[in-house]
Write a structure and sequence with these properties.
The protein contains nine helices and eleven strands. It is an alpha/beta fold and 364 residues long. The radius of gyration is 27 Å and the shape is elongated. The mean pLDDT is 86.
């Protein structure tokens, strides 16, 4: 006659069973996470492969051709230091739905670091998530171009040459509705270049204009105690603004908003595009896009403010794109294989878990 299990033996058996079931649930969870990440990777990979070359993002000729002369009034957006944040994407989408600007300008630091795959993710976000009906012009910032050796992987380093291959010229000027717009890319190691470009453009094209707008990533020193700059040779820069009667100059770099004037020139820092720094003061610390409207007899500014939000989904998408896609570049089939593997793993784990439940039901 078979002896009945003691209470202690039964208790230990139950603990082992529960441990196995917990491991099964953990296995199911990990497999489902793997399924989600690889499926997301497949979707992002498809988007990356389909980014249109004629996208009007950046300073290529296609962007300039998309500018339309419709007379006055007309408006444009200014935002800065977006750094691929989810809030920046939502801000630009909401602002574009509310208003119809002729174009938008991001005054630098539109990615977190000068990494090629960060830039590719930025292009993917603009092409797929936003697809703006107006050109988005770019002023390069210190996070956008690697002038030194920030990125150790040479294949991913965005040098000035790589940047221009992605977006076109670092410095750009154009005339729209008799207003001159000048975008200046600044290389801190060669500061005379941006001053030479600014001087030549103002002298050749600035005479008799209705308004002149200048866009630079780095603000000059001395605007405020909490705005560090450092725009090189700022006194020469100021002299050019005053000599050629520039209407307004827009900057980024400081993650907030500031406005002032110097000898008739309006100076605006608009770097509240999405990422704040913990150590910065509260002054001007809000997410915003600046809408500038040029009318017949006046210039008006509207600050479009947006609430802060946690963007977990956007962070996960960026992580998968930047970390996973470089590994499988030109080998998209790897993602499909991994998805099938994780799907099989999750299915097998579910079957084992269900069998364990049935076995427990028969024994207890």
């Amino acid at each position: 006659m078979r002896a009945s299990p003691t209470f202690t033996e039964g208790h230990q058996r139950m603990k082992r069973h529960r441990g196995r079931q917990a491991l099964c649930l953990l296995s199911i969870g990990l497999a489902l996470i793997g399924c989600y990440l690889t499926f997301l990777g497949i979707s992002l990979y498809r988007d990356y492969e389909r980014i249109p070359r004629e996208l009007v993002i950046g300073n290529r000729d296609e962007s300039l051709k998309a500018l339309k002369e419709r007379g006055l009034p007309f408006a444009f957006f200014v935002m800065g230091d977006t750094q691929l944040s989810g809030i920046a994407k939502r801000m630009l989408r909401a602002a574009a739905e509310k208003e119809k600007p002729s174009f938008a300008i991001i005054v630098g630091d539109f990615v977190k670091e000068p990494d090629l795959w960060r830039h590719r993710f930025f292009l993917r976000e603009m092409a797929v998530e936003l697809s703006p009906s107006f050109p988005v012009l770019l002023v390069p910032g210190n996070h956008d171009i690697d002038y030194g050796s920030k990125i150790r992987d040479l294949s991913r380093r965005v040098t000035p040459e790589v940047y221009e291959g992605l977006y076109g010229r670092r410095s750009l000027d154009f005339v729209l509705n008799d207003c001159l717009f000048i975008l200046c890319g600044v290389d801190l190691k060669q500061p005379d270049e941006y001053l030479r470009y600014l001087r030549e453009t103002l002298s050749l094209k600035g005479g008799g204009r209705k308004a002149i707008f200048v866009f630079v990533h780095y603000p000059p020193r001395g605007l405020s105690s909490f705005i560090n700059g450092p725009l090189p040779k700022e006194e020469v820069f100021y002299s050019l603004l005053e000599t050629y009667r520039v209407t307004a100059c827009f900057f980024g770099d400081y993650h907030g908003y500031w406005r002032g004037q110097r000898k008739g020139v309006t100076l605006i820092v608009s770097g509240g595009g999405g990422r704040f720094k913990g150590y910065q003061p509260e002054w001007g610390k809000f997410h915003h896009i600046l809408k500038v409207t040029v009318e017949k007899d006046q210039l008006s500014e509207e600050i479009m403010v947006f609430p802060d939000r946690v963007a977990l989904k956007d962070s996960i998408e960026e992580m998968v794109f930047v970390k996973l896609l470089p590994i499988v570049e030109h080998r998209g089939w790897v993602l499909y294989g991994l998805f099938g593997l994780f799907l099989s793993w999750s299915g097998a784990s579910v079957i084992i878990w269900i069998r364990g439940l049935r076995k427990r039901g028969r024994k207890w």
